[in-house]
Amino acid sequence: MTTQTHVPFTIVLALAATLMIGPFSIDTYLPAFPLMADSLGVDIHAVSLSISVYIFSLAIGQLVGGPMSDHFGRRGVLIGGLLLFAGASFGLAFSQSLNALLLGRALQAFGAGWAVVSVPALVRDRVRGQQAAKLFSMIGLVMIVAPGIAPGIGSLLLRLGSWEIIFVFLGLYALAVIPLLLVTVFRGPRPPAPVRDAAGPGVLARYHAVLKTTPALPFIGWQAATFSGLVLFVTYASYIYQIHFGQSKDAFALLFALNIVAMFSFNLLNRVLLSYVTSLRILQAATVAQAAGMVGLLFSATLDLPLAAFVVSMMLYAGSLGAMSPNNNACFLEHFSGNSGSAAALMGATTFGISGLLSGLTTLLPHTLVTIVLSMSGCALVSFSFMLLSLRRPR
């Protein structure tokens, strides 16, 4: 595919809509956790496990889908993943036990993995360097809308029916994305399958080629640590706001959306700064901002400060990801002219795999705000360590 310096906004919108599958799948059903717990006969923490299962399975789906997209092409893998996601979503609407819910979420995430891993590869197929960072930032700017409105959509759907309707909505959304992709990203004659590169067609050979690119590997750990902290918050957001702070479903949706406003603001600032500062420098500065937010959360939780103190600190912590994620992706994929699908898969699988595992392990800990925040602080500390290491390796 020919590298471009400009990508039409319709393509940006289609790619962002595809990535929105992820936050919609996680955030839309958060307000329904208490209802789902009652319906399935379990406690709310058992329902929270479905997030961990989803995220971990998403990692597996990316590991499989990435090399497939390199070998067979992006189109079939991406659309196939959306179809699998839609089918699993409709099946989840009929879940009558926790085991059925967890199995459905695993299948749903596997399909989502095929879809979302294709997007960074499609970006890398078109642009590179600062242009790639700007495109990732633009895609992020659009898809940030998803986690902001997802809990609100969930609350609205709960007014129309029971929690099952949320999964019907997710299935219909995935099906709606397919024609959007066909008339934008994949418009015109079907492109030939990618040329097999020196790594060969084998999955292991492709991943071996990626792992040999040692300058790129720190960005994987950086991203995994950063994202894991956010996943821990999302996993327990319903507990934090609705149970610990005693907020209603509607108030929860609003409080959750404030984090998205912060991410949106950081993303806008990032797009401006990219015209003057390198991606790595912005990533480093955003990591410092995340650490500052984490300090605020620690004070808020340990000193039992009012809700407002927690919300402001959380906005700084979550908002920093609006600048961290696009720049981390750009810095990482800059090292791969070939095997970009496999590289994106390794990045995504490691990120989601570690975050899903950590999220699942925290269900074994006491369910208190202090425990949750301490777990998040460990992730922030690792992320900050990668930032310090990057200062010693100028690009």
Automatic annotation (TrEMBL):
Gene3D superfamilies: Multidrug resistance protein D. It comes from the Bacteria. The keyword Chaperone does not apply. It is found in: Cell inner membrane; Cell membrane. It holds the Pfam family MFS_1. GO terms for cellular component: plasma membrane. Keywords: Cell inner membrane, Cell membrane, Membrane, Transmembrane, Transmembrane helix, Transport. InterPro entries: Efflux_drug-R_Bcr/CmlA (IPR004812), MFS (IPR011701), MFS_dom (IPR020846), MFS_Efflux_Transporters (IPR050189), MFS_trans_sf (IPR036259), Sugar_transporter_CS (IPR005829). The chain crosses the membrane at residues 7-26, 46-64, 76-94, 106-123, 135-153, 165-186, 216-239, 251-270, 364-389. Residues 11-395 form the Major facilitator superfamily (MFS) profile domain. It is a multi-pass membrane protein. Belongs to the major facilitator superfamily. Bcr/CmlA family. This is Bcr/CflA family efflux transporter.
